[in-house]
Amino acid sequence: MIEGKSFGRLTVIKLDHRKRYQGGSRGFYLCLCDCGNEKVVRRDHLTSNSTRSCGCLEKENRERLAFKVSHGQTKTRLYYVWNTMRMRCRNPNVENYHNYGGRGIKVCDEWNENFEPFCEWAMANGYEEHLTIERIDNDGNYEPSNCKWATYKEQAQNKRNTIKQKKLY
Q: What is the pTM of this model?
């Protein structure tokens, strides 16, 4: 007997009815959902976990995944900088991963999780379209205290493989 047992958010109250079909019959049970609604569910749908609520769980998931108003900057250069920075550090299939994530370089949690904090930092720290993000300590992570904006020329001079020449006087 399954009366009194819980399956997901549904607790079985009693057998509601049986339906006959060629080869047997199926039991349908009246259930009480955690949200307070009642629902009649086929026994095999309960025991296989294919029905876990009166429908409220699906509704909650739909609302949670619903389109949310975004920052509106997906197609900007700054968003591209943010996204490629993250990919270099966490996606082994990216061409330069071995120079970043492969060496243990990470993006701080604040920036990695959301674009907005990165955008706020960028605007407060002199971001311009022609600049690139650069780590001050080349072995350090991407984080507010270790990043600055630099020109392509400045950044090229600060690479690990750049040979620094001594000035002759």
A: 0.55
Q: Which of 42, 40, 21 is nearest to 31 (CA)?
A: 40
Interval 13-61: pLDDT, tens: 999 999 998 888 999 999 999 999 999 999 999 999 999 999 999 888 8
Q: Which helix (H) or strand (E) holds 98?
A: none
Locus of tokens 């569910």: 41
* Tokens 């370089």 sit on residue: 105
DSSP 74: T
Measure the CA–CA gap between 111 and 124, rounded to whole angstroms.
15
Distance CA 133, CA 77 (A): 12
In tens, the pLDDT along 78-115 reads 999 999 999 999 999 999 999 999 999 999 999 999 99
6 near 13, Cβ under 8 Å? no
Q: Is the dihedral of CA 164, 160, 112, 78 positive or negative?
A: positive
